């Protein structure tokens, strides 16, 4: 009798913990579609939470949560910390929502029995917790289409049962971990331009890079000293020209002043901030959003911008198909020069570099070199919707049946809805046409 009583007490405590977990989710997340309307906590009986939308229990006689499936419900808000109280849970799917903030560092310690976890297509930021290596039973781990930064924890190589894994479309960097019994294709890591290692490009030896940089710094310092000596003492005519140099009509904000290297000049000569200085500082600041590529890399990927690789012409420039190392296929837009050129270039980086969503073509990188400017996007192999509706041969156009058209229309609606309502930067698309809709291999 005492043994039975002790077991009932343990189950009761587990039930209370799981109820607290579900209550926290409902209280801390916005639910515009009222998908959690069945989650009522006025009267809780045995097994009552098992009827909640998206909730499965171990059995109908207890309120012990086995899985929570809340995918694509447009739930919004910071990551629900109370979810850690569902300590017996095995499956957790919060994909396709608008969750923000970082993933709790000790989530794996609180939910030790997780078999499948899907946080894809959200607005999560921060790093991937190294404690994920404690999930010895996990088979599925999806973190793609978020804003995660830092490295993929090397400890993940300890996961012996991992079979499905994706961190694509984030801002991760560093070497890939060597996973124990499974290998994952390059698509699992796609659109993280800072990642390296098999199956992506090999990593560069950091010791060699450090040696090069240290030598470069010494040489650069000596060159700077000699140059300043020449300007101050050997070329008074040049100093007069500097006095008359046209100033840039941009406010001297603390950010601009901090980004421009201080010049050691005579007190009689004021600090001069030119338009080129301001542009260079702004361009450098864009690197916090997306990766900056060199002109040499782009030339190599496009065979020196061969016309055979041109895939589109527009008012702003020419689009090229580019093949990077490791067979990474991307699209490069070479911008034409026009009034407001630099302003529009920086604005596009600042906006599109911060936006990541399944139905939005991601901006992956940029190049600003030798007075030329380039934008690097994901390559969409099936071209535009306009081409499929009006220009494709009849045999190919048959693929565009009503089921596929409906699927594309839903994708367009989801993309626009996210642009209008996301928590990062709300954007209005002023000219939505079939020519603006790009299609990948899955349309």
TrEMBL record:
Membrane-traversing stretches: 208-234
Residues of the Protein kinase domain: 305-443
Main localization category: membrane
Alphabetized SUPFAM superfamilies for the sequence: L domain-like, Protein kinase-like (PK-like)
Subcellular location: Membrane
Alphabetized UniProt keyword annotations: Leucine-rich repeat, Membrane, Repeat, Transmembrane, Transmembrane helix
Domain of life where this protein originates: Eukaryota
UniProt keyword annotation of Membrane present: yes
PROSITE patterns in the cross-refs: PROTEIN_KINASE_DOM (PS50011)
InterPro entries (alphabetical): Kinase-like_dom_sf (IPR011009), Leu-rich_rpt (IPR001611), LRR_dom_sf (IPR032675), LRR_N_plant-typ (IPR013210), PRK1-6/SRF4-like (IPR046959), Prot_kinase_dom (IPR000719), Ser-Thr/Tyr_kinase_cat_dom (IPR001245)
Pfam family, one: LRR_1
PANTHER family, per database record: LEUCINE-RICH REPEAT RECEPTOR-LIKE PROTEIN KINASE PXC1 (PTHR48007), OS03G0145102 PROTEIN (PTHR48007:SF76)
Protein name according to UniProt: Probably inactive leucine-rich repeat receptor-like protein kinase
Source species of the chain: Tanacetum coccineum
């Amino acid at each position: 009798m005492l043994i039975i009583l002790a077991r009932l007490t343990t189950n009761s405590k587990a039930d209370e913990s799981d109820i607290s977990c579900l209550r926290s989710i409902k209280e801390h997340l916005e639910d515009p579609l009222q998908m959690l309307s069945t989650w009522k906590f006025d009267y809780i009986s045995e097994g009552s939470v098992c009827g909640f939308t998206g909730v499965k229990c171990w059995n109908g006689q207890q309120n012990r949560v086995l899985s929570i499936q809340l995918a694509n419900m447009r739930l919004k808000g910071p990551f629900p910390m109370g979810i850690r109280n569902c300590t017996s849970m095995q499956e957790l799917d919060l994909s396709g929502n608008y969750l923000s903030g970082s993933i709790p560092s000790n989530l794996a310690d609180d939910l030790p029995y997780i078999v499948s976890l899907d946080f894809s297509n959200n607005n999560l930021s921060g790093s991937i917790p190294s404690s994920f290596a404690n999930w010895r039973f996990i088979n599925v781990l999806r973190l793609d289409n978020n804003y995660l930064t830092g490295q993929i924890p090397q400890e993940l190589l300890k996961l012996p049962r991992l079979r499905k894994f994706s961190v694509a479309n984030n801002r991760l960097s560093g070497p890939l971990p060597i996973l124990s019994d499974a290998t994952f294709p390059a698509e699992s890591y796609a659109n993280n331009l800072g990642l390296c290692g098999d199956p992506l490009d090999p990593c560069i030896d950091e010791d060699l890079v450090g040696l090069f940089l240290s030598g470069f710094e010494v040489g650069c310092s000596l060159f700077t000293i000699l140059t300043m000596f020449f300007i101050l003492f050997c070329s008074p005519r040049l100093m007069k020209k500097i006095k008359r140099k046209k100033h840039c009509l941009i406010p001297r904000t603390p950010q601009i002043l901090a980004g421009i290297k201080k010049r050691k000049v005579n007190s009689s000569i004021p600090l001069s901030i030119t338009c080129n200085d301001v542009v260079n500082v702004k361009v450098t600041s864009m690197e916090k959003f997306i990766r900056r590529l060199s002109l040499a890399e782009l030339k190599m990927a496009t065979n020196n911008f061969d016309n055979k690789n041109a895939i589109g012409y527009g008012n702003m420039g020419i689009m090229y198909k580019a093949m990077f190392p490791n067979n990474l296929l991307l699209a490069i837009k070479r911008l034409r020069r026009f009034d407001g050129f630099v302003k529009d270039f920086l604005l596009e980086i600042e906006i599109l570099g911060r936006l990541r969503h399944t139905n939005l073509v991601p901006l992956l990188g940029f190049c600003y070199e030798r007075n030329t400017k380039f934008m690097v996007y994901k390559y969409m192999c099936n071209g535009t919707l306009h081409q499929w509706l009006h220009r494709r041969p009849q045999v190919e156009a048959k693929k565009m049946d009503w089921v596929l058209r409906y699927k594309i229309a839903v994708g367009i609606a989801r993309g626009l809805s996210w642009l209008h309502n996301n928590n990062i930067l709300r954007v209005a698309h002023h000219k939505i046409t079939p020519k603006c809709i790009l299609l990948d291999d899955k349309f």
